[in-house]
Design a protein that fits this description.
Elements lengths: L4 H28 L4 H6 L6 H10 L5 H11 L2 H6 L1 H13 L1 H6 L5 H9 L1 H15 L2 H15 L3 H50 L2 H5 L15 H10 L7 H9 L3 H32 L8 H9 L4 H33 L12 H22 L4 H6 L1 H14 L5 E2 L2 H21 L8 H7 L3 H16 L1 E2 L6
Helix pairs in contact: 1-11, 1-17, 3-11, 3-15, 4-15, 6-15, 8-9, 9-17, 9-20, 9-21, 10-11, 10-17, 10-18, 11-15, 11-17, 11-18, 14-15, 15-16, 17-18, 20-21, 20-23, 21-23
């Protein structure tokens, strides 16, 4: 992309606004409320409906370049795989679990797992949550966007990304995350809305654009097999173990706010998915030979005028940084509240949970920046580790919210270790299929997460029992 000095000014103003919101506004909130662990970790459990919706919606789209790539490559199937299944699972989460999380007294998933299934389950789930949320890939994305308009060396851009994205979390905690997410929420909708308006003005109506697309881009399968689509529907159940959902439900002002917030968020996700779907399809219709990863940036570079081009870069930053902030803070809370606090080390004896979380944030930043700088090519492997981690947590965590079902402490640990172990074996085994028969290769082509969840379901049938007379 090429930038005018006005575009650069807009980008700089974005960072100034985010820093103002993250530091100044969150400090005003801190002055008005008690400085407690609950205040720092869950914003005092006072998250009102508008802020709940803004922070939940904004954290959902961190891999925005991957969304553009999916739409550009497969068309409407991107929505079928990456939109529709998640609306369904979010709806089920809202109906079945959201209120239960808010009614409990726990702050985190590991805390909840320890309460239900003991210390071993709490420790395992802490490791799983860190694997899911460590934001190295998002720090790399922000660093790459930095490099796009600065031309600086990548490692400098990565460090700058971490500093500008995480420092206000150190002082403001979850409330700073919520406030910056709210600003980013507004920017992301405005940015993609403006891009769509200018695109329609330049290239005609969506109907005209549809006529220029390959036929498979307008089909619900998009050239994908039914097994792949089914896998996406199964993978969408990771919503049930998403730490961001759990944290925001725990922070909601009431159980009703948690439930209503998710239901309303689904409508906002539909709207944003419509914007990304249409702009991605326009990019494919007009620029059929570009890299799919550049679907949005190529379109923006060609249709947006000065100022709005810079604003669209802030939109990409807002989308990625909102997820980066939220995941970094969850990782920090997990390290501080669920690991360090229980480590019983003399050096941290008597230290408040808030300061342990701050230590966790420093550790999170160091780990993420180091991975992004030293092993940028391996970050996709780190991203895929969710396929290993999630199957171990899905069944035990979900079952723990329903009193009519019983799972023993040892049973929970078995499900967590075995199902995640199977997913790990599958992930490694897929790299050694060259000498196998066609059937053998097809066997190992099963998604690791799907294999792990299948084993988890089998174990659940064997280990979970129904409690009699639960209603009493």
């Amino acid at each position: 992309m090429t930038f005018h000095w006005v575009d650069i000014t807009v980008i700089i103003l974005y960072f100034l606004v985010i820093l103002f919101v993250g530091f100044y506004l969150s400090s005003k909130r801190k002055a008005k409320s008690e400085s407690s662990d609950i205040e720092f970790i869950l914003a005092g459990r006072g998250l009102t409906l508008p802020f709940f919706i803004a922070t939940l919606v904004a954290t959902w789209y961190g891999n925005i370049f991957g969304i553009g790539e999916f739409v550009y490559s497969n068309g409407i199937a991107a929505w079928v795989c990456f939109g529709l299944p998640y609306y369904i699972t979010a709806f089920l989460f809202a109906l079945l679990i959201a209120k239960k999380i808010r009614k409990s007294d726990v702050k985190t998933i590991p805390e909840h797992m320890e309460l239900k299934f003991g210390e071993k389950a709490g420790l395992i789930s802490s490791i799983i949550v860190i694997i899911i949320t460590l934001p190295a890939q998002y720090i790399l994305m922000v660093g790459l966007i930095f490099q796009l308009f600065t031309g600086w060396t990548l490692w400098i851009c990565i460090i700058a990304a971490a500093v500008l994205s995480l420092t206000y979390l150190y002082t403001g905690g979850f409330h700073a995350d919520v406030l910056t997410n709210t600003a980013q929420f507004i920017i992301m909708y405005l940015g993609f809305g403006i891009l769509l308006i200018y695109t329609i003005a330049a290239y005609g109506t969506p109907e005209h654009m549809f006529n220029s697309l390959p036929g498979e881009h307008l089909s619900f399968s998009g050239g994908l097999s039914w097994q792949v689509i089914l896998t996406w529907f199964i993978i969408s159940f990771q919503t049930f173990v998403d730490p961001g959902f759990h944290q925001r439900c725990a922070a909601a002002s009431s159980p009703k706010t948690a439930q209503r917030g998710i239901l309303i968020s689904i409508a906002f996700w539909v709207l944003f998915d419509t914007l990304t779907l249409l702009t991605g399809l326009y990019s494919r219709a007009v620029y059929p030979n570009i890299s799919p990863l550049n679907a949005f940036t190529t379109l923006a570079d060609n249709v947006l005028p000065v100022f709005w081009k810079g604003f669209f870069v802030t939109t990409l930053l807002a989308v990625v940084m909102s997820t980066l902030d939220s995941y970094a803070f969850i990782t920090a809370v997990t390290i501080g509240n669920d690991l360090l606090k229980k480590a019983k080390l003399k050096i941290i004896k008597g230290v408040s949970t808030k300061y342990l979380v701050r230590i966790g944030l420093i550790i999170t930043a160091i780990m993420s920046v180091s991975l992004a700088i030293i092993l940028p090519s391996a970050l996709q492997i780190l991203y895929k580790t969710s396929s290993v981690a999630i199957p171990g947590l899905l069944i035990p965590l979900t079952v723990s919210f329903f009193k009519r079902y019983h799972l023993s402490k040892s049973g929970a640990v078995i499900i967590m270790l075995v199902s995640s172990g199977i997913s790990l074996i599958w992930t490694i085994g897929r790299g050694f299929t060259e000498k196998l028969t066609t059937i053998g290769k097809l066997f190992w082509e099963i998604e690791p997460m799907l294999a792990g969840i299948s084993i988890s379901l089998v174990l659940a049938v064997l280990l979970i029992s129904k409690v009699k007379n639960n209603e009493k």
